[in-house]
Amino acid sequence: MKSVAFAVATLALLFSQAVATADPVAPQPDSPCAPNYTDAMTLPSGATMPLVCQGGQWHAVTTPQPPSDVWLSYGPALALHGEGKRNPNLRSGQWTATPQDSSSQCRAQQSVVLSPGVVGEPQTAQGQPGLPLEVTVLPRLFDIALSGNCLWERND
Q: What is the rounded CA–CA span in Å between residue 29 and residue 72?
């Protein structure tokens, strides 16, 4: 009887840990989005075009868009590019990443163009779980990876 109780307790502990660390559900076209995500964009894994939250739903973007000042990362790293490449996804400047739950940790890893054909070493900024992260997205940004369940907003 003790071994059965131990097995049940162990399974319950493992299940609760798995649920607590699970990534948020990935946004899908025509699925609902929260009001605070209005005009935010996100890029589901494997997608070539982003989704935008408008009218309470995620909509697929079908044409090239100007750089967005609001992005949602939700689990896997959101790989974007900046003004150091053609058709940037976001602009340089001051950004704030706000975790969408108390355990989320926002992280940005960015590389800039140093000279024609030369990209610098990645620079990383990482916040504390549940706390906002202030990030300067550097001029001549080549690429940036945003991660964590976080809402990223350009401040200026």
A: 14
86-124 pLDDT, tens digit per residue, is 889 999 999 999 999 999 999 999 999 999 999 999 999
Query: What average pLDDT does this structure show over 126-140?
Result: 97
Q: Which pair of tokens denotes residue 75?
A: 């689990």
123, burial (CB in 10 Å: exposed 0-12, middle 13-18, buried 19+): middle
Contact indicator for 59, 29 with CB cutoff of 8 Å: yes
Residue 4 pLDDT > 70: no
- What is the four-CA torsion angle of 79, 104, 108, 61, rounded to 10 degrees? 30
Q: How far apart are CA 42 and CA 25, in angstroms?
A: 12
Regarding pTM above 0.70, the answer is yes
Contact 108, 71 (CB under 8 A): no
Which regions of 14-77 does DSSP assign to beta strands (E)? Answer: 41-42, 51-54, 57-60, 70-73
Domain boundaries, the chain: 25-154
d(Cα 41, Cα 99) in Å, to the nearest integer?
Answer: 16
